[in-house]
Write a structure and sequence with these properties.
Elements (H helix, E strand, L loop, with lengths): L1 H10 L10 H13 L3 H14 L4 H10 L12 H20 L5 H24 L8
């Protein structure tokens, strides 16, 4: 039933999933931090909603533009993608709270924060794995 609605929406030229309004606010912040064009950033952030999920090309384009946004992966649902975007937005806001007000300072803080967060996630995910070298 859901796939019927999604395909009907795409035949009508509409996004498979409506783009949440918060995407525009996040795009504005990201455009400022990365010194990019706000409309291009908003379009890039909206792509997964057009497809109903994050597809390979979305993933690649997002990582090229925002290498610190490694929480995104191919096959991610739009709900999870929206949560990842909101987490990114909160990370940007946290940089302001820490006193980083210049775009390059915020960007450097994001790179550091998002890298550390990703490392912790990987450590948690793979902490039970042990390797025997016998």
């Amino acid at each position: 039933m859901k796939s019927d609605r999604l395909s009907q929406r795409s035949r009508q030229g509409l996004p498979a999933v409506p783009v949440p309004p918060v995407v525009d606010a996040i795009a504005a912040r990201l455009a400022w931090v990365t010194r990019g064009d706000e409309h291009l950033v908003a379009g890039l952030l909206s792509q997964p909603y057009l497809h109903g999920q994050v597809i390979q090309s979305d993933h690649e384009q997002l990582l090229v533009q925002f290498p610190f946004f490694s929480a995104v992966h191919t096959g991610m649902s739009t709900d999870d993608y929206t949560l990842a975007l909101v987490n990114l937005w909160l990370a940007i806001e946290a940089q302001y709270t820490m006193g980083n007000v210049l775009p390059e300072d915020v960007l450097n803080g994001l790179k550091e924060t998002m890298t550390i967060t990703r490392q912790r996630d990987c450590q948690r995910k793979y902490s039970d794995i042990s390797v025997s070298m016998e």
